Amino acid sequence: MKRHELDQALRNRSISHAVMLYGESHFLIERYTKLLMQFNNANVLSLYHDEYQSNLAKTHLSQGSLFGGENILLIKSEKKIPKADLDTFISLCQKNPDNYFIYAYYGTDFRTSHKAFTKKAGGESVRFFNPYDKEAKDIIMREAQSLGISMDFYSAGYLYESQNSDLSLTCNELHKLRLLEHPITPKDIDELVFGLAEVKIDQFIKELIEKRDFKPSLHHLLESGEDEIRLLTAFSTYLTQLYLFNCQAKIHGFVNSVEVLGYKLPQFIEKERSSLSIRLPYSIYKKGLSLLLKCELEMKSSSNHDKNSLLLSTLLRFQSIL
User: Fold this and answer.
1) In whole angstroms, what is the distance from residue 27 CA to residue 130 CA?
2) Does the global pTM surpass 0.90?
3) How far apart are CA 35 and CA 7, in angstroms?
């Protein structure tokens, strides 16, 4: 099934009872998973990544709904589900018209799994490619409109480029911009959105946390046009995200960036941040964020401060408490 055919099926409410979503665009996989999950009074079992249990999934689809609605099995994973299990789930959906199975596969080895979702078996599979540039900007425009944001096509492109052409990050940043009660301009994006086009910012923050000499990177970023408040905000955001990863790892034993951030990070970045997050104790997060917020308040409360010196001294103090 092509993506436009899935759009048509969604409009006509003629969705197959077993659907596999896969491909290169994690953003579109996540987006269409949410669209497919729009059921009222449904009995939903969601199994994310390492939570998969074959017997639990089979039991869910084998029993009647306690509430008289649909039984929905949602599996989101980077790991392949055995084809025998997929065949069983699809078969259970065919036996009971109240059963639905949605398999959101984020891995790269999809050469065989999607073959289980044939029309003959009662399923459908949809591969999502990364959108072309114009298509991505159209998606951003539609997302902005759904949030009540007034934005022209140029500003949508400007926001997209500021997030290194990552649709998930771009649409996530729209939630910040919806707070403004006027049409969004590139100036608003510069002031409210932290740009990710410079990978060096990420490296700069890692140097800070790993107690390396960050001053050359800081100097380069400031020379490149970044300002002190934006760098401080970027570090605060990064540290907050690490704390959330830390909490999730302690509670569930794993990290899932979709649940923490609302979008999927590339796997190598997710693993890197997960590893970094558990190295910092709670006391560091508490002291560090307090220090950064105090510095931000000082910067914004007076124009007489030497922001460069204030930022440098704050970052050195942060390293001293590590």
Assistant:
1) 9
2) no
3) 10
Whether the per-residue pLDDT at 276 is higher than 50: the answer is: yes
Give the residue among 294, 281, 287 at the shortest CA–CA distance from 318. Answer: 287
Check whether domain 3-128 has CATH 3.40.1260.20, yes or no: no
In b/e form, how buried is each residue of 111-134, taking b as 16+ CB within 10 angstroms? eebbebbeeebbbbbbbbeebeee
User: pLDDT at residue 198 above 50?
Assistant: no
CATH 3.40.50.300 boundaries in the chain: 3-128
CATH number for the domain whose boundaries are 199-321: 1.20.272.10
Tokens found for residue 168 = 């998930």
Residues in the chain: 322
Q: Any idea what the Cα angle at residue 76 is, between residues 75 and 79, rounded to 5°?
A: 100
Contact predicate 161/136, CB 8 Å: no
CA angle 53, 57, 62 (to 5 degrees): 145
Calculated CA dihedral for residues 308, 311, 313, 314, nearest 10 degrees: 170
CATH 1.10.8 residue window(s) in the chain:
133-192
Per the prediction, the chain carries an average pLDDT of 86
Which two tokens mark 282?
Answer: 């709670």
DSSP state letter for 151 = B
CB 144 within 8 A of CB 52: no
Q: How do 124-128 and 18-23 pair as beta strands?
A: parallel
- Average pLDDT for 194-205: 64
Per-residue pLDDT at 28: 93
| Chosen CATH of 133-192 out of 2.60.40, 1.20.1530, 1.25.40, 1.10.8 | 1.10.8
